[in-house]
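User: For my dataset I need records formatted as: sequence, then structure tokens, nothing else. Please produce one.
Assistant:
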Amino acid sequence: MDKFIISSRHPSRFFPAVRGALSRLLAQRSASLRGLTVECVCIDEEHARALDIETDSGVEIILHHCVFTSLGQGTLLKSLRHNRGPTSLPSLE
């Protein structure tokens, strides 16, 4: 698996299955995973925790056109302060 994309057409809706997919994918990151793009997903605290991985892991994580709950935003900011989490944040709302 080289790159993986998780996308939704409705960023204002929560999709619990996305949480599980993110958690499993990043927890079991195989050596072949090089990139993850998350598009149009509402990021809550659990999503943000799943994205909290070492930036030097070699996995490029891009959040594109995502919206955040207040807890999701706070959790993501904590990760970024510790040089963890997404490597690119284009088009945040």
